[in-house]
Amino acid sequence: MIQNLATLTPELVGNLPMPGYYWKLSVAQTWLWSDAAPQLRDAITLLTQLRRDYPHAMQIGTELALALIHNDQLSAAENLLRELAADWGAPDEELLCRWGRLYKDTGDKLWAVHRHHEDHYPRICAAYERSLAHYEEAYAVRHGHYPGINVATLRLLVASFKALPAQRDEDRQRSRQIALDLLQKRAHWPGNHDDDSFWHHATEGEAYLLLEQWDAAQQAYHRAFANTYCLPGRRVSIEQQLQRVFQAYERMGTQVPEALCILVKGRADSKAPAG
Known about the structure:
By secondary structure, this protein is mainly α. The chain is built from 13 helices and no strands. The chain has two domains: about 1-90; about 105-275, no CATH class.
């Protein structure tokens, strides 16, 4: 994890003479997860330059797409994802997950505006279903825990908008089954990056949350938030996912313990997630 970036600018980092792009990408990622608007803009500037310098590096393109989504530039992110899909051709797990994130955020925005208007619920559900379809395609690549936990959570979200109990129960059961499968494979989740320990704890907490194993979920989230790699923006991302789940449970009449609700900073309820 890179620290002490206060003296760096996107132009300075981008123009440093060094082989490869990995260090520069790590700087952009640190800015991306800082949860500070100026640093997010710096991340976008640097990633844009890196994409020009390394147009065939998928990792740079998907990180730029994520940064644009974080900055609420959903149209620009969608255009970039289409470019990446056209360039790459074969299914790519990370790219498919970015599509999933794009439509998940689209559903969030629709919910924030129309949560009190049930006639808009089919449109909100449709956005989450598009997100689910992309995460399911990503999960099929190698059954990774990252797309897998999103499939499980999106199944819950979609279920919460279903009017017929049979349809709701089917999606709810599939959500539980995937969460359980992921936990059973917990020891085999890959740990190739320094920050994987943080994401593993968060994913574990989310799986337990979907299984309504409240105490285990709370303990896993506490481990995630105490982790060295819990950067402010990463915590915000986890809190937003928590809020999505809380909202789904609320729509289905499931009471979430207060101890879990207050994991979201400054909130003890399940209001709409931050943009």
